[in-house]
Amino acid sequence: MLDKGANPGRHALKARKDDLYETPDVAVHALLRAGEVPAVVWEPACGPGAIVRVLRSKGRHVVAQDLVDYGCPGAASRIDFLMEQSAPPGCECIITNPPFKLAAQFVERGLMLVPKVVVLLRLAFLEGTGRSNILDSGHLARVHVFRERLPMMHRGGWQGNESGNSIAFAWMVWDRAHVGPATLHRISWKTEL
Question: Tell me, what's the pLDDT at 112?
């Protein structure tokens, strides 16, 4: 069901449920090539484990959690990241693709808990004034923009057309130690690691 008056290609929040859109493996491989992934990572919105699987296959220790149990191996469920008061032991970096409707809150909470937060977001996240506190703080260190559009990310349970993606995405890196403007890097998902 579509929102009346809304974008005809966008489904109502009710239809999108928990806003689960799995990260393509190739996006995670591109982040690894960009050198942004430490040995220990916290994935607080792991879903079925798209990011977790790739990082673990590359030797990273990933603490995986989610509010909903999507069956990610070794993940803890029923954990509301936005209520967390401390990071899991040894975790100083979050890498996630959170529900877009909560992305700004995930970045804010993440920066309270760990020094580095890496989030897969629509490039349009950089627009607007509602996120000025995290975008203009000087802690947005790097933006890794994909040269090509990522393979389509469909919401969990999608049964429709799997046509190409018309949305531009980037890995955005916040670092509490960074002060100043962000640097922009163009990356590709078409080269395997």
Answer: 97
